[in-house]
Every structure is written in C-alpha cells, then in structure tokens.
Amino acid sequence: MAVPYTYRILAEVLVYHRYFLDDGNTPFDQNPALKQQQLRDYYWTAFASVKPTAQTNAHLRNHRLFLKQTPHGFNIAVQALAQNPNATVFKPVIDLDENLQLDFVINVHDALFANYSNLDAVTHYPLLFRNYNDLIEPALPLINTASGTTEAAQYGISTGTQKSLIENNPDDQLLRAKALVSLKMRGEGNGRNLILASGNLPQEHPVFSIRFDNRNTIWNYYSGKNQNLIHSTDPNTKPLVKNGVVEVSQGNTDYPAASPNTVVWERDSVGTLIKTYSKIYIN
Prior knowledge:
Elements: E1 5-17, H1 18-21, H2 32-39, E2 48-52, H3 54-62, E3 65-70, E4 73-82, E5 90-92, E6 101-108, H4 113-116, E7 127-130, E8 144-145, H5 159-168, E9 179-184, E10 207-212, E11 216-223, E12 229-232, E13 238-239, E14 248-250, E15 253-255, E16 263-267, E17 273-282
Parallel strand pairs: 1-10, 7-9, 11-17
Antiparallel strand pairs: 1-4, 2-6, 3-4, 4-5, 6-9, 8-10, 11-12, 11-13, 14-15, 16-17
C-alpha cells in the first residue's frame, strides 16, 4: 500500500503595496470588508516576482520543498506525512534542521516602482526581511507576521551588510534585488516558527507580510501651454494611488490626481531627501 504523502504549506509570505491597494486616501486594511474588496483584484506580480537563491534552490530540491507564487505573495510547501490516523499532525518527509535557512530574492520589474513607493533611492538594497535575529544588523526589525504593520522602508541595511550579502551570494545578483526574504525553520517569537521543536509542522502555518508604503508627494500643476505653475498643494502632500479618488481643489476648480510618471526629488547638500514633487500638466 502506497504511503499517503501530501503537501502542506510550510510558510506563506504576503507582499502588499498600498499604491495598488489603498482606496484613495483610505488605507486598504482600515476594515476587513475593504481589505477583502481591495485584495480581490490585487496581483503583486504586477510589479515584482520572487525566486530562490542558488543555495536555497538546492535546499528545495534536497528537502522536497516547493516555491509557488500566489496573487498576494508566495508559499513554500513541503511534502509531509500524517503522524496520526486523524491526519491532524504532519511531519516533513525529509527532516528539516531547525537552522536550515531559506532565502528568496524579490526583484522589481516595474520601472515606476521607485516613484510610487515610499523608499529613498539611496537606500542600500536588498531590504532584508528575516524571522530570526543574528549578529548582522541585530537592530533590524523581524519580518511582520500577518497582523504586523512595519513598513518596508524600516528594513534598509547598512553598506557593510549589503557587501556581505552580495559576497555570500555571488550568483544571485543581489545588488539589483529589491528585497531578500530569509527564513529559518525555527524563528524568533510567536508565529514565526516554520517547524515545532519536535520537527512536526505547526497546526497553523506561519504567515508573514511585507508592506510597501505608497509615496506621498507635493502636487504641482502647470499650464500645458506656457509651463507656468497654476496651483500647488505645498506644503501638504498627497498619496500616489492606483485606485480611488484623491481630491485636490481650489475654489470652483477640481484638479486631476497625480500619476507616478513624473516625480522630482529635492535633496539637501549631503543627499538627504527633503521633498518629492509630482508634476501635472493641464490645459
């Protein structure tokens, strides 16, 4: 009789971006109903994709693990075997050492990503999302669990860490990557363990989330005829969003929303970002 192997989700990573998800000025996760509605047509592959590092690709093959992209992120699945007649406890077919580390590279393919994302162009990439702490960047926050709200901009790394990651992963072109998701089988704190101390899978697999914030810019309106400035929201900023309405008006005039196509960065003498402007030309 064949052994009834099955596939179980080892971990799930959600990749949210508020530019695509927010409804105008309203955060997409303000309430469960809105979140469900906004996620219905959300596909993170509109701006990015994921792949394992070369070393992790070998780990996947050797441990019967599988990577699958989903509309909202990606899953890591494992071939497992039920440990009791009721199939309520599962264990990977190939034991997973608690220090086994899986690394996944997130690459951005949308040329406008920097314009609509609240990330500084001089940030050292890849952003580093981990479910564990170590001596490299010990102050870096842990990757969000499903309910976490730490924005992606908080996961920037130092020049030294960037150099170390690139040297340790020579085949993965990390200098071009936007993010690196690094997961160990046994993580830090509640909800971050991929396996139990016994080696079995948890009753509920861990769900992590990466949250890219959308950029807020000052909206400057110019005449399409003579290029003169007609109206500005300065010093107030407005969010760049793909969906919903962001109102800008002056007197009886309503102005169109800005798009990510034209964003201007204003920096001080040492390169610190001071303001960002969106340029909108109207007739």
